Amino acid sequence: MSFQDEMKKIFLRVAAGEVEPAEWEQWWNSHRDKLEETLNLGNRNRIMPASWKADYYWMTKTQSGIAYYFHTLGRPVKTSDYYEKKAQEDGTNNRRAAMKSFYEHTAPVREQWEKYLEGHPTEPVDFDWRSLLGTPPGQKPPQIFFQKARDEDQWKQTREELKFRLKENMQAKIMPLAKAYGMKKAGPQTFVKERNDLVWCIQFTGYFRSGGYEAIRYYLCPVYAIYTGILGLPGHICRGENFQRVEKGWGVIQYGGDAVDAAMVEKINRKFDDILTFFADGVLPEWQKIDSMETYFAGERLDWLKAAEKGPWDPRTARPMWDTGSSGGVLITGTTGEQKHPWRADAYLFGVWNLLSGREEEGYRLLEECVEHGADYMKDCLKKYPGAYNDARHPMAVLYYNAELFAGTKQIADEGERRKAVLETYEEVCRFMRYYHKLAKRMER
Known about the structure:
3 domains, alpha+beta, globular, four-stranded antiparallel β-sheet
């Protein structure tokens, strides 16, 4: 048997999923010289990439390269899904092992947080959210529209059908969950709640030309603050497996140009299942634990958020499974100088809390840092938009104006009068911020 015949024989076995990674590696290394003579550089790199390792993930790459090789010969071959399934199985097991190591590594910090919660218990929400999964009750079969919208009339029909399917899933899945946690509607796609001067918000953004949802904004923060991602959720909740499932296939609830047929409606149903699971099995139960600003700012919680900021190394990509610090900042503590929010929103957040807690020196220092950082922005912004600090569309202006109000109380010499002014400013700011967070009707100051 010639070498080319031997090579094609084992190539066919790889295509059929009959060669294990170690066997393939041994064969390739044993015939490397002949392979360099027989295969061109492109085929060699496709079949055995430079970073190849003896596992099933890389065998899928080898199999794909071999399929391409036979295709160029005019002899396409059918490939087995054996390596793909084994790679998925290995990936699942490896990620589980990595997460187990993560939980073991962060256990001391997590246990301190859990011990704190034992001393500050909240009533858990008993709600059977899993009963909402699947097809919404009474969902009617879709009308079959054009495979691809071509003109404005067709675009209108597909957009309207997409909006209808989104609305029925929203009503069947998200609204009952939000209601169970005491959230109220503040618009067609927004749910809010205030508890002990903390605001909860879930907002589906979209309904632009594409017809669907562009994103979901969700946050828990003090009423006086603006949404920035600071002190949000532990990384394994806000960037974990449930979040990854939400991110995949987002286009099915975003674009209104494709036919909303039975297959598309089923995809929409499944995508809302992912969204429901993300909030019901992670986000809202985590928020439920935090019933006061004392708990929100507790040192044990800050330590836990910091410990969970970066995930374990992904065995396949050799990168962290998540890194909330580099992707928006779940925990940005300008108080320690480690990281600072580009708007200095962290200085405002912690500055006000320090004032309310009686730590005036540190509170005023942080607030003045925020005001100084935003001085040039406010000057330019108010020239173009004189009422920007009263407009929720200008969050930076709102932030810096609020910081100025609190920082201004420092000029009051009498300690008692200064404390009174801080509390009055806090009430004034919160009144406006309830409108900002859609907790109340529009107001100006």
